[in-house]
């Protein structure tokens, strides 16, 4: 067990370091875009499946409530939480449409859509990003994989943050680090508080 612990820790750190080195400029560019969106009265729509759904909810909570400083709420909404909408759309149409319908109902050109897909192949995330683009929203994707392009989901996004790993746990660990970093950068830029 000790060896598993050390190996897992090492691989997680390597995935995050590679991600930070390869994607640092994109992370900063996305943070700047989030500042712009929030500054012009827009909101951030977040969505994903499974652990990525939990990440969407986590990040929305950090933006709306607080991250490191007490400040006014920033507009963010996880599209993964309304069980009535999710099950109605899934039942009446398709699981592939569960985020699409919500983006169509809630998304405006001044908003940003952030889809999270560990594999980069989640069809419902892909379709929602495509619809967001049609609306005129800025699109972003958190993905993973050794190919480096973020898969289908990455190709539908203006900003692609791809973790260069094929291990789902390490991709997810890097995602939550990036999500926290984005929130910190946006807080600092908008509120100018030292943390």
Could you characterize what this model shows?
This protein is an alpha/beta fold and 195 residues long. The chain has a single domain, classed as Rossmann fold (3-Layer(aba) Sandwich), CATH 3.40.50. Helices cover 57% and strands 13% of the residues. It contains seven helices and five strands. It has helices spanning 2-39, 51-64, 83-92, 100-106, 123-135, 151-155, 168-191, and strands at residues 44-48, 76-78, 112-116, 138-144, 159-163. It has a five-stranded parallel sheet, with helices on both faces. Helix 1 packs parallel to helix 7 (168-191) and helix 4 (100-106) packs parallel to helix 5. The chain is globular, with a radius of gyration of 16 Å. The chain starts with a helix and ends with a helix. The model has no long low-confidence stretch (mean pLDDT 95).
Strand count, sense and closure of the main sheet? 5 strands, parallel
Percent strand equals 5-15%
CATH topology: Rossmann fold
Structural class: alpha/beta
Report the C-alpha radius of gyration, rounded.
16 Å
Termini separation: 37 Å
CATH architecture: 3-Layer(aba) Sandwich
Note the run of SSEs as H and E: HEHEHHEHEHEH
Average pLDDT rating: 95
Number of domains as seen in the coordinates = 1
The CATH class name reads Alpha Beta
H/I helix tally: 7
**How many strand units?**
5
Strand arrangement, major sheet: 2-1-3-4-5
Uncertain segments are: none
What best-fitting shape do the alpha-carbon axes yield?
globular
Percent of residues in helices comes to 55-70%
CATH superfamily: Glucose-6-phosphate isomerase like protein, domain 1
């Amino acid at each position: 067990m000790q060896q598993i612990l050390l190996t897992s820790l090492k691989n997680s750190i390597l995935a995050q370091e590679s991600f930070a080195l390869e994607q640092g400029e994109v992370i900063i560019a996305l943070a700047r875009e989030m500042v712009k969106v929030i500054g012009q009265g827009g909101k951030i729509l977040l969505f994903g499946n499974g652990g990525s759904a939990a990440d969407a909810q986590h990040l929305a909570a950090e933006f709306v409530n607080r991250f490191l400083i007490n400040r006014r709420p920033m507009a963010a909404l996880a599209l993964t939480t309304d069980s009535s909408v999710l099950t109605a759309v899934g039942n009446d149409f398709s699981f592939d449409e569960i985020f699409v319908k919500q983006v169509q109902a809630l998304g405006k050109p001044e908003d940003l859509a952030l889809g999270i897909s560990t594999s980069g192949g989640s069809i419902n995330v892909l379709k929602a990003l495509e619809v967001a683009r049609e609306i005129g929203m800025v699109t972003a994707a958190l993905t993973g994989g050794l190919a480096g392009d973020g898969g289908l989901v990455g190709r539908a996004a203006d900003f692609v943050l791809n973790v260069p790993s094929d291990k789902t746990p390490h991709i997810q660990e890097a995602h939550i680090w990036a999500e926290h970093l984005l929130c910190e950068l946006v807080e600092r830029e908008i509120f100018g508080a030292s943390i």
